[in-house]
Amino acid sequence: MKIYVSAIHTDVGKTHFSAVFCANFGYDYFKLIQAGNPTDSEFIAKTSPKTRIFKNGITLQTPASPHVGKKLEHANYQALKIALPESENLLIELAGGIFTPLDERYTMIDFMERFKFPTFLIAKYYLGSINHILSSVEALKRRNIKILALVMMGEKEPLQDEFVQNYTQIPLINLPFLTQNLILNPHLKEQIKSLIK
Length: 197
What we know:
This protein has helices at residues 14-25, 40-47, 66-73, 108-114, 129-142, 158-168, 186-193; strands spanning 2-7, 28-31, 33-35, 58-60, 90-93, 119-124, 147-153, 172-175. It has 197 residues and is of the alpha/beta class. The strands form two sheets. It has a six-stranded parallel beta sheet, with helices on both faces. Strands 3-4 form a two-stranded parallel sheet.
């Protein structure tokens, strides 16, 4: 099974979730496009050392939106021609939010629509995140991209979770930022496992 890790915004916990997921479910890891250093693959290698990590689809040095890095670095690639590695169980981490540009023409969600795999949508608690969550969920649903779950990173905020879950009617998972031991508690592991069967 191939699964995307997408997000409502940049810096909400995609790579952290990816490390936890790969460590607990034995998935291989692939970063579609990397912009800047240190790389997300390096974080995965450090925190989930048993995970098989494929070479990034595209690697840019500029810590900015990929379409900016592409222009500044004179990189030659086309977003929808980035090849995915062969793997029976592959976690594909995207960059930024779902409308972050991949190149001058296409965004992350355009890639997701072209190569349809389900996604975990990653979010974090901050003022304005409900708007970003609902907008992202609507966009994914409009393009018929299956959302396995909304993953809320950080300390649980029950009132926000209740509103979002009632509004979207999609599964919601709370995941704390695990710093040392990435092994999930049995209940949470079973909850996630049921979504990927």
